[in-house]
Amino acid sequence: MSASRSTRSEVLGAVSAGLLVVFFCLILLWHDPLVFWNDDYELSVLPVFADMARSWSEGHWPILSPYSWVCGNLAGEFQYGVFSVFVNAVVTVVWKFPLTFPEQAAAVSIAHLFALAMGAFLLARDRQFSGPLSIFVALIASLNGWIICWGATDWFGALGAFTWLPWAWWGAARALDPRRSKWRFLWPAPFVYLVVTGGFPYTVLMLLLLIAWLAIKALIETRSIRSIAPMLFGVALGFGLSAPAWLAILDLVQGSARELQPARAHWQWLVSPAALPGLILPCWTVKWADFSNRYLPHTAAELACGLVAPAALIAGLVWRARALVRQIKWELVLLLLLLLLSMIPTAGLFRWSFRWLPFFHLVLAICAAEALHLRPGSPIPATVALSLTAVTAIAMVILRVTGSDAFPLTWIFLGLAAFWFLSTLSLSGSEFQKWPPAAITFLALLATYMYIPTNCGVPKYNFSQALLKPAPLDPERLYLSIYPWAELTYCVGYKPQPVGETLRPGSTPMWAGLHFINGYSPIRPAGVAREFATSIHGEINPSVGSYLLSNQAGKDGELALLGVDGVIVAHELDLIPQPSSEWEAVLTTDEGRVFHRRSAPFARVRSITSLDSRPGEQFATATVSQINDSRNRAEVDVDVPNGQRPALLTFSRPYFRGYEARLGNRKLAVTSYRGLFPMVEVPAGAHGRIALVYRPAWLIFGGATAAACVLLILLAVIVRGRANN
User: Fold this and answer.
1) Cα–Cα dist 83/149, whole Å
2) Residues 27-44: pLDDT tens digits?
3) Bridge partners, 588 (sequence order)
4) Distance CA 577, CA 642 (A)
């Protein structure tokens, strides 16, 4: 009964921490209803989530999307959490309600922040922290500056994955505990799975670093490799469960534009040593290297952690150094390593080292909680906080690094530090003496986001709910949209009025189920993304667009081969598809002009008689009927005339490695036209129904691996249950 009460108490505490974070977010929404609605969330994340919800409602697994060629492989893009049970569940539930775009974004982010706070609370409780200190850790883990200013409001994949890192740490620590049963290897598996499938490669790196750190720590402390076996086995199970996710991105990234990213990207968004006073006062403003390698003044919003944590850790290291270092020497090493990683350039496929900051904040919160745990209610941390705030404020004025809202926020922080100091004196010996650190952290973070914009200079767009409707475009056509750099042309700073109804930048066509070549993709896989030199945000290179409309828009051009029968040109560009006999202008708006081919929309599957990539070859004209072009497969009835020549079928969908084709029980070879779209050669005299199915090796092998891990976990749970009975 005692154990049952303890479990209920822990769950209640975790839920309370989560609800406190939800309350915090609701205050932010009251202050700014668009706080969670920025940049990538608008151009990419929310439209894709709408498509995922549509896919599940249609009974399809959202591995591919038919509404974008550049961003057609949702699974391989990784950041959308296609294989995460939690992400899909949240998206499915949220899209059942009639919410506006900003409300949907807020609901998805808040659901993840709630789970993140719960995991951080349980991690802290397993370290024997009190309830108030555990809530203190949960607040910093889920509401720190990087998570709020980037993960929850822009790069959702970062939040989707980091949500489960405290849970994975909690599970891994339990797997290392020899006092637990031999089944303790099960603890980390589901959370490792959720971290990996959450959709952020950087968090997978964080997870690997965490596991390596825990393993080294356990090996040195126990001097037995058997001590880490349960944890490593559980982690391996977690990676096995998530195999489809990481195998998908490894497959899609081959030959992609991401492999060729410029070296200068590794020097952007590094945490400057000069910015570290921002841990005390987030309004501290020094120069950071932004996305364009320009060193511009930037407030240290990403370093916001609520004042208490850095002050408590510094106080502990000064006044109780020996005892504290003995207690958290391993955590201090990890903390310093994470700080170093956030300051040095990245390598390979990774970029922007400040993405290590959420992990840094989590470890900082734990170290600070250990310092506060040594002597609860001591006035020393509050005294240090008051002194550091005053000294930092003075230095900020002397060095002229004050932000635009420095002094309202500085006075508030000084007041909070003074209140903390006075509370330690007045509450001495009281049960409430443990609560000021959590309360001050909550209020300091709230004040930070009230006075410092959570939007760290990224663009915002005024996308209206009208984008849910296909009009004025035709959902039966495949469009190529040519527009200038979106963030410099259509953000609210340049276009405060609603935009996008004609151009549909990024992945916004997915909202209305419109078929576009364009799409938002950080990976930009080989194929149309490389061929058309698309940017991450979905823009076609202007010179490539000019060439395509001038030289490849005829009835025998490349655009016709792809099945493009609609073109949209922004009014900023003076382009018209040629020849004029092939195209007609059907719409002109303030955003641009829409052109349609004079013929009816192209069929999604066509039989062609010749191809420039196979000169000298002629193909028979097959009769194509009963086309069923769905998300992950296409089916068509075909009848090829008898004779010597085979037929060549082209499928108007982006090509990815892994397509298979069958005519009845007969397997047909699938090729591609320059990596752009799949083609199937059908023998002379053949007739029947051809099925083109996306069934890549990574999905088969990854699915089998995940299924085997699920069976192994279920078997272990069953055996454990029988043993306990």
Assistant:
1) 26
2) 999 999 999 999 999 999
3) 593
4) 39
- What DSSP assignment string belongs to 219-245? HHHH--GGGGHHHHHHHHHHHHHTHHH
Q: Spell out the SS3 assignment of 361-388.
A: HHHHHHHHHHHHHHCCCCCHHHHHHHHH
Establish whether the linkage from the previous residue to 345 is cis, with ω within 30° of 0.
no
Half-sphere exposure of 707 (CA within 13 A, CB side): 6
Segment 67-72 mean pLDDT: 95
DSSP state of 266: G
SS3 content of the chain, % helix, strand, coil (to 5): 55, 10, 35
Q: Of 143, 138, 158, whose CA–CA distance to 454 is shortest?
A: 143
CA distance 507 to 195: 25
Looking from the CA of 639 toward its CB, the CA atoms found within 13 Å total 3
What phi and psi values does residue 637 have, to the nearest 5 degrees?
A: -85, 135
Instruction: State which H helix or E strand residue 417 sits in.
Output: helix 406-426
Q: Are 231 and 169 spatial neighbours (Cβ–Cβ below 8 Å)?
A: no
User: What mean pLDDT is predicted for residues 680-684?
Assistant: 94
Q: What is the mean pLDDT of the chain?
A: 93
Give the span between the Cα atoms of 74 and 89, in whole angstroms.
Answer: 16
Q: Are 388 and 280 in contact (CB under 8 A)?
A: yes
Q: Name the residue among 370, 366, 362, 367 with its Cα closest to residue 195.
A: 362
List the one residue out of 247, 253, 254 whose CA is nearest residue 697.
247
3-class DSSP assignment, residue 624: strand
The SS3 assignment for 101 reads helix
- CA distance linking residue 617 with residue 57, whole number of Å: 44
Q: Which stretch of 208-212, 247-251, 360-364 has the lowest confidence by average pLDDT?
A: 247-251
pLDDT band of 134, cuts 50, 70, 90: very high
Is the previous residue joined to 262 through a cis bond, with omega within 30 degrees of 0?
Answer: no
